[in-house]
Amino acid sequence: MNILVVGSGGREHALCWAIAKSPKCTKLYCAPGNAGTSRIAVNVDIVADHIDDIVEFATSNAIDLVVVGPEAPLVAGLVDKLEDAGIKAFGPSAAAAALEGSKGFMKDLCARHNIPTADYGRFNEPDAAKEFILRHQAPIVVKADGLAAGKGVIICCNKNEAYAAIDHIMTERAFGSSGAEVVIEEFLEGEEASFFVLVDGETALAMRSAQDHKAAFDGDEGPNTGGMGAYTPAPIIDDAMSKRIMDEIIKPTIKAMSAEGMPYKGVLFAGLMITEDGPKLIEYNVRFGDPECQALMLALKSDILDALLDSARGNLKKTELAWHNAATLVVVMAAEGYPGRYDKGSEIKGVDKAEKLDGVVVFHAGTQEEDGRLLANGGRVLGIAAQAKTVAEAQKLAYKAIDKITWTKGFNRTDIGWRAINR
Ligand code: AMP
Ligand code: GLY
């Protein structure tokens, strides 16, 4: 089969890496890809947001399945356009991708179907939003309704911060039109974890839980990033908790989306707070997490292509996934300055040495190859994934691999996995 993966990050390298292992995959493309994907796939010079160009490429290259990595093209309707052109795609329609594309849509759906989540209000007018804040307790959470590259959530310790957040999002339009509406939420206390399922419109197949580290620096300090590391499974999510998450959150969502005429398919990534009252939904993402995907792909024993095809074809009922009975952990190496301003073009050496370690895979994100040299080409640059019996051993192995890599302009956290290890 001819497969096209859309995107250019570590998540997409991990998807290519897993798909390339499938005997069903005869030709693999990645648009636009990175230096890592170029070793196992043909990189195609089309960026993920150029939907019409992707549809055109898929049509003229007889692509049998398009696997969409990032959320923006999903929310913009890439899967709808591919299906209109007769091409199978892994991922939700634009209507179903609103679970991530509009926080207000997600909250209203949860309210209509009794899915546990934080209490909230939804506003398209700053005065009404501020009036709501006046009537509620701090801490309180203010969120831009639309996509904001992971930056649209402001946790406010007091009401003045919350009023300022409303001005920032709605009046100053810090996130553009994504801030035309806001969701204001109760602050949830507990431990955060993520849960990933594959969905085919009706059936939800549990993958695994994971936890990530969003802060830039050790001790979960510093600015928020896309994710500086992750591991799977999350120790806080045991079998009983997994069952509750499936029964109380995931299955009711899939049923609701189908009942309301927007059947969900693709991967559904639930961001959860495990509270004293049980699991509560913080947010949905309609794609794999990055770097969670890198950990999941290394942990998966089954043929991922079969599962992605079953999702796209509505066949998940009989699908089973087998996992390595181990912990998998990924540490991100980022360019100095990330998530703020950073330089591109510095050289990275020693990746081949790191990859020789048993149980280690190096996934590329912002990389580029030039005259045989590996150069940094983005904020998050590499993801060093390691698999071992425990999270502690996987952590040790990942950092052993990082010791083999020489990159003077890069940095990484040195404590990925601390929460699981300290339990
Ligand atoms: P989101 O983009 O919705 O995942 O929000 C980013 C981060 O903000 C989450 O990972 C949580 O750490 C935090 N967060 C969002 N909503 C809440 C909430 N209602 N209560 C506590 N923390 C929250
Ligand atoms: N690592 C979090 C995310 O992909 O949203």
Explained architecture:
The protein is of the alpha+beta class. The chain has 4 domains: 2-91, 3-Layer(aba) Sandwich (Rossmann fold), CATH 3.40.50; 125-180, ATP-grasp fold, A domain (Dna Ligase, domain 1, 2-Layer Sandwich), CATH 3.30.1490.20; 191-313, ATP-grasp fold, B domain (D-amino Acid Aminotransferase, Chain A, domain 1, 2-Layer Sandwich), CATH 3.30.470; 327-421, Glycinamide Ribonucleotide Synthetase, Chain A, domain 4, CATH 3.90.600.10. 32% of the residues lie in helices and 29% in strands. The strands form 5 sheets. Strands 10, 11, 14, 15, 16, 17, 19, 22 and 23 form a 9-stranded antiparallel β-sheet that branches. β10 and β11 form a beta hairpin. α7 runs antiparallel to α8 (159-171). The radius of gyration is 21 Å and the shape is globular. Glycine (GLY) binds next to loops. Adenosine monophosphate is lined by residues 118, 141, 153, 155, 185, 187-188, 192, 271, 282-283.
- The number of helical runs is 14
| CATH-defined fold name of the largest domain | D-amino Acid Aminotransferase, Chain A, domain 1
Strand content: 25-35%
Described by the principal axes of the CA atoms, the overall outline is: globular
Helix content: 25-40%
Going by CATH, the homologous superfamily of the largest domain would be ATP-grasp fold, B domain
The description of the largest β-sheet is: 9 strands, antiparallel
What Rg, in angstroms, do the CA atoms define? 21 Å
Structural class: alpha+beta
CATH class of the largest domain: Alpha Beta
Q: Can you tell me the number of structural domains?
A: 4
- Low-confidence runs: none
Tell me which ligands are bound.
Answer: adenosine monophosphate, glycine
Based on DSSP secondary structure assignment, what is the total number of beta strands? Answer: 23
Tell me what the CATH architecture of the largest domain is. Answer: 2-Layer Sandwich
- Round the mean pLDDT to the nearest integer and report it: 96
Distance between the termini: 45 Å
